[in-house]
Amino acid sequence: MALRAHWPVGWRGFRLRLMSRKPEGELRRGWTTGACATAAAHAAFEALLTGEFPDPVTITLPRGEQPSFALARTELGNGFATAGIVKDAGDDPDVTHGALVLATVRHGETGGGVTFRAGEGVGTATLAGLPIPSGEPAINPAPRAMMREVIEAVAAAHGAAADIEITVAIPGGEELAAKTWNPRLGIVGGLSILGTTGIVVPYSCSAWIQSIRSGIDVARANGIAHVAGATGKTSEAAVAAHYSLPLEALIDMGDFAGGMLKYLRDHPVPRVTVAGGFAKMVKLAQGHMDLHSSRSQVDFGKLAAWLKELGATEQTAQAARGANTAAQVLELAGELPLGHLVARRAREVALAMLAGGVDLDVLVVDRAGQIVGKAGS
Fold it and tell me: For the purposes of burial, counting CB atoms within 10 Å of the CB of 362, is it exposed (0-12), middle (13-18) or buried (19 or more)?
């Protein structure tokens, strides 16, 4: 998997995507690890049957696209063939960009069909709630289907049996996986082989939201009764310490408060904590469900009015209206419990989205990681 960008799919948070600034202009798409593994498996199986590696190798993706991949490594040995492809993620900030994806094929047991093994740098599922059973290689169902399809097609073209064992490896993948969602999702030993379409869409929000859903699915399947969604590392560390929550209970909500709350509404857990920095929680309190700076803004006039509710002077309220950042307003509040008021208002908004049935609390965290506001149980 990779940074919020090997973002996860289905369990693509298994890939954590870097929150780097999106470049201007049209962005170049790339290929998922699943597409690379499929092309590598195709080339390796051709070589196992014919002694020759097709280079480049062309595959058909689920939506009909037919990309060609140059081979970066080939090896033909006694009873096996290996092909490798360097992943090109396009303009997406994916930490698996440039990684070598290897597929080694061997003949399997007669009638066994296509089977999968995890090689170096590819993880193994250990928790319920993922789309693959515990103990299986962390190869997503869609890439498995793609690989089965190309193996069966090549076998049919050469009059051979499609009883093949595929080992997928990504050298260095275990180190990359430490930067992803894999540890909290119970995927150990490396990355996941991902992708439903085979195509990486740069800066795709849907991938992050799918990661949030995967985290909730894993928590529910493993009986975790209290989950916490946080906007970033500082607030996540604060909420984890405050409640002594295990890693599997922590949801990397990022800016997608609405995406998390909507999924929890239909897939509830008994208790939910929403934690975030002061500015992000102000946005939630003011009714925004997407907390990214390019898609929602703090209403400083409303924030100044909240200060007045708490007894601030008109001079302080005026300074708040002209503030450059929400953090400045928090400073202006001084001893006034502005953080707690923001937490209460954010909780009201979140509860309305959840439509009841969940024990919800909100934590507001400052830049130093201190909890400056709390509302709920």
Answer: buried
- What does the alpha-carbon distance between residue 177 and residue 35 come to, in Å, rounded to a whole number? 19
Which has the closest alpha carbon to 297: 305, 287, 306, 307?
287
DSSP H/E element including 31? strand 30-31
* Confidence at residue 204, expressed as pLDDT on a 0 to 100 scale: 65
Please compute, for residue 203, the number of CA atoms within 13 A of its CA located in the half-sphere on the CB side. 12
Asked whether 170 and 2 are in contact (CB, 8 A), the reply is: no
Supply angle C-alpha 314, 316, 298, rounded to 5: 110
Superfamily of domain 30-200: CbiD-like (3.30.2110.10)
Q: Which among 37, 39, 60 has a CA at the least distance from the CA of 137?
A: 37
If one counts every other C-beta atom within 10 angstroms of the C-beta of residue 307, the result is 23
Closest CA to 86 of 153, 7, 31: 31
- For residue 81, the SS3 value is strand
The upper half-sphere exposure of residue 65, i.e. CA atoms within 13 Å in the direction of its Cβ, equals: 14
d(CA 101, CA 265): 38
12 vs 208: CA distance, rounded Å: 8
Chain centroid to Cα 53, Å, comes to 34
Per CATH, which fold does 224-376 belong to?
Answer: Beta-carbonic Anhydrase; Chain A (3.40.1050)
Beta bridge partners of 338: none
- Please list the rounded mean pLDDT of every run of 10 residues in the chain (377 residues): 35 37 68 94 98 96 93 96 93 81 96 96 92 93 95 96 97 89 87 86 72 91 95 93 94 92 94 96 95 87 96 95 92 95 97 88 95 93
Question: According to the model, what pLDDT value does residue 90 have?
Answer: 78
- Contacts (Cβ under 8 Å, ≥6 apart) of 244: none
